[in-house]
Design a protein that fits this description.
By secondary structure, the chain is mainly alpha-helical. The chain has a single domain, classed as N-(1-d-carboxylethyl)-l-norvaline Dehydrogenase, domain 2. Helices cover 54% and strands 6% of the residues. It is built from seven helices and four strands. The strands form two sheets. The protein has a two-stranded antiparallel ribbon. The protein has a two-stranded antiparallel sheet with strand order 3-4. Strand 1 and strand 2 form a beta hairpin. Helix 1 packs antiparallel against helix 3 and helix 6 crosses helix 7. The chain is globular, with a radius of gyration of 16 Å. The N and C termini lie far apart (41 Å).
């Protein structure tokens, strides 16, 4: 990509659907935010594969929320494909590392999905638990600072 004659270190992908980015929500809620635990961090692989049925339930719930917002199922990544990719994700997510390194604020897609699911009358206890864990860990950073 070039902007004003200069190379820009960004790759832009154009999709027909506005909902393609929502496909990431399932991955973020199933793996990335669940790397943040009450006792520290865990890898994305462990967050996903420590209880595959639990992970599938979260993933499918978030996919269903995205579809209720208008996402096309063809734009979504099947759970099996994500779970297979997660097998090689041996590090904690950037969100978990940021929290562990003392960041008082991070991007909160987990909270966004929770609020939307509640608004749609489709709350999910597993997502609520993840949000509570992240909230507590961030509050610890603010209190300590």
């Amino acid at each position: 990509m070039r902007l004003d004659g200069l190379d820009v270190p960004v790759k832009l992908k154009v999709f027909d659907s506005l909902f393609v980015p929502l496909a990431k929500w399932s991955m973020l809620l199933t793996g990335n935010y669940r790397c943040i635990t009450p006792n520290g961090m865990q890898s994305i692989r462990d967050a996903v594969h420590s209880d595959l049925d639990h992970s599938r339930a979260i993933y499918e719930h978030v996919d269903a929320i995205a579809r209720r917002l208008g996402a096309d199922p063809q734009d979504q990544v099947p759970f099996e494909k994500y779970a297979k990719a997660a097998e090689s994700l041996l590090n904690p997510s950037s969100a978990a590392r940021a929290v562990a390194n003392g960041a008082p604020f991070i991007e909160r897609v987990d909270l966004l999905v929770k609020l939307i699911s509640h608004q749609l009358g489709a709350p999910n206890a597993q997502i609520d638990e993840t949000v509570q864990t992240v909230d507590r860990k961030l509050e610890e950073k603010i209190v300590v600072s």
